[in-house]
Amino acid sequence: MHDEDGDRLSEAELLITVMLLIGAGQETTMAQLAKSVLLLSHHPDQWARLVAAPDLVPNAVEELLRVVALGHAGQPRMAREDVEFSGQTVEAGTTVFPVVNAANRDPAVFPDPDRFDVDRGEASRHLSFGRGVHFCLGAPLARMELQVALHALVTRMPGLRVAERDDELAWQPESLTRGLRRLLITW
Ligand code: HEM
């Protein structure tokens, strides 16, 4: 099954590939979609805006990627040499956790950053897919999936509502994406 031109994946390579596809490729987008629907349910004016103007969905997906926090922080990075950063020296060998959620609410980039606005012009400047050599390999696919799903929801179920109170939601705090076990909706 798992060979190409005689080059076989080892058992460990096969396992890590499956973990990547399910963890990085499926759980992330699934969690992002459920949390996006939940956030929109807290902002009925923004939902109504999308129902009235579904062409805004691609921008709304970027704004949702900016404000919906999938994890607690970014991926850890270790400095290979001393680095000057914002007036601080990060010494070689030090591990840093970039807090992507804070960067996504940087008022120098996103005016009035705590305002959730599907019309926001600079929404796509978020760092939710990372940056640099490890930029998310699946970003175009994730964007497409989120756009297709949200477009279908606003056009086919304009009356969509979340059918659970906030204190009934089943969170998965142990998961990397801090997703929901399920999200009950009605329409
Ligand atoms: C909303 C959905 C998604 C989000 C928010 C997301 C986020 C991220 C982030 C932040 C990174 C960078 C990690 C780092 O800096 O080390 C990353 C890497 C990666 N993502 Fe995604 N991702 C999503 C969907 C996907 C999908 C759908 C796939 C595959 C089909 C995927 C595959 C990967 C892979 C393979 C990497 C590693 C890239 C590398 O290290 O070179 N992701 N993702």
Explain this structure.
It comes from Kibdelosporangium lantanae. Belongs to the cytochrome P450 family. This is Cytochrome P450. Keywords: Heme, Iron, Metal-binding, Monooxygenase, Oxidoreductase. With 187 residues, the protein is an alpha+beta fold. The chain has one domain: Cytochrome P450 (Cytochrome p450), CATH 1.10.630. Helices cover 40% and strands 12% of the residues. The protein has five helices and ten strands. The strands form five sheets. Strands 1-2 form a two-stranded antiparallel ribbon. The chain has a two-stranded antiparallel sheet with strand order 3-6. It has a two-stranded antiparallel sheet with strand order 4-5. The longest helix is centred in the N-terminal third of the chain and has 32 residues. It is globular. The mean pLDDT is 93. The site of protoporphyrin IX containing FE has 17 residues, from helix 1 and helix 5.
Concise synopsis of the structure shown:
The protein has helices at 11-42, 44-52, 57-67, 100-103, 139-156, and strands spanning 3-4, 7-8, 77-78, 83-85, 88-90, 95-96, 161-162, 170-171, 180-182, 185-186.
Along the chain, the helix and strand elements come as EEHHHEEEEHHEEEE
CA-based gyration radius: 19 Å
Strand content: 5-15%
- Helix fraction, binned, reads 25-40%
Q: Main traits of this protein?
A:
oxidoreductase, Cytochrome p450, globular, 40% helix, two-stranded antiparallel sheet, alpha+beta, 187 residues
Task: Chart the SSEs and their pairings.
Elements (H helix, E strand, L loop, with lengths): L2 E2 L2 E2 L2 H32 L1 H9 L4 H11 L9 E2 L4 E3 L2 E3 L4 E2 L3 H4 L35 H18 L4 E2 L7 E2 L8 E3 L2 E2 L1
Antiparallel strand pairs: 1-2, 3-6, 4-5, 7-10, 8-9
Bound molecules: protoporphyrin IX containing FE (HEM).
The site of protoporphyrin IX containing FE (HEM) has 17 residues, from helix 1 and helix 5.
